[in-house]
Design a protein that fits this description.
Blueprint (H helix, E strand, L loop, with lengths): L1 H12 L12 E7 L3 H15 L2 E7 L1 H9 L6 E5 H9 L9 E13 L10 H10 L3 E4 L3 H13 L2 H4 L3 E4 L3 H7 L4 E5 L9 E6 L7 E8 L6 H10 L3 H9 L3 E2 L1
Parallel strand pairs: 1-2, 1-3, 5-6, 5-7
Antiparallel strand pairs: 3-9, 4-7, 4-8, 4-9, 4-10
Length: about 250
């Protein structure tokens, strides 16, 4: 999808997507990258059903959390549960409505057509990391923290250190461009990109999941619309889309 290629750098840097003009019924949404594919499908459905317009800024949860802490105005936000809880404790996010939207697991991305490594077991994953010429993931993310812990647990952290390349663009785009041989990110951030394919999720005994939750600003200009969005994202129809995009609802 060309759209994904176009927003790759924007998404990682947390820059606004200038796709809608400001209107009275606009909802300013700050959304984590892992939910981008979900919102590409559900966003237009929500707009059509409610008449509201989403003005979306994408980024990592850490980037968006920092922007909110810095005083950036918003109506609705979709972040990791941990980040949202911290913002609520700081009075930046309202106590209600807040809801779990989706749970995402880590996947391994390879260039389309490349030989798939055996990821069915932890030993297979370990060997795949040792065999890889280069390994990429976006730093300062839940995925990065989980992978560093896994590498240490498997005893290969030092051995693969020279292969690891911190990324400043979407992991799937880095693989497509040939920047790295293997990249890891949330599965929902791999499936939409035509230049890569999902080699597989991490084996069950080392897989980790990140829960993404939605909330509204404590100072939202369009609190009603923002609350309607959170409710919409927990509906049965939304859950079906979330599952189709490689995540688990709720």
């Amino acid at each position: 999808m060309n759209f994904h290629r176009a927003i790759a750098v924007i998404a990682v840097l947390g820059l606004p997507l200038a796709t809608t003009a400001a209107q009275a019924a606009d909802i300013k949404l700050l959304g984590g990258n892992a939910l981008n594919a979900v919102m590409e499908e559900l966003g237009p459905q929500f707009e059509k059903a409610t008449g509201n317009k989403l003005v979306t800024t994408l980024g990592t949860s850490a980037q968006l959390k920092a922007r909110i802490e810095g005083g950036e105005a918003f109506d609705a936000v979709l972040l990791t549960k941990a980040a949202l809880d911290e913002l609520a404790a700081a009075g930046k996010v309202a106590d209600a409505p807040r809801a779990a939207i989706a749970r995402a697991g880590i996947g391994v991305a390879i260039r389309k057509g490349a030989a798939k490594p055996d990821l069915s077991t932890t030993d297979g994953f370990k060997q795949a990391m040792l065999n890889a010429k280069s390994i990429g993931f976006v730093d300062q993310t839940p995925t990065a923290a989980a992978l560093k812990a896994i590498f240490a647990k498997l005893g290969i952290a030092d051995e693969i250190k020279s292969k690891i390349k911190p990324l400043t663009i979407q992991a799937a785009v880095a693989v497509t461009n040939g920047d790295v041989e293997i990249a890891m990110t949330q599965i929902s951030e791999i499936l939409p990109y035509p230049g890569v394919e999902l080699a597989g999720p991490l084996p069950p005994d080392i897989q980790t999941y990140t829960t993404f939750s939605g909330g509204i600003s404590a100072a939202a200009k369009n609190a009603e619309g923002a609350a309607a969005l959170i409710k919409f994202l927990t509906s049965p129809d939304a859950k079906a889309v979330i599952k189709a995009k490689g995540m688990e609802p709720g």
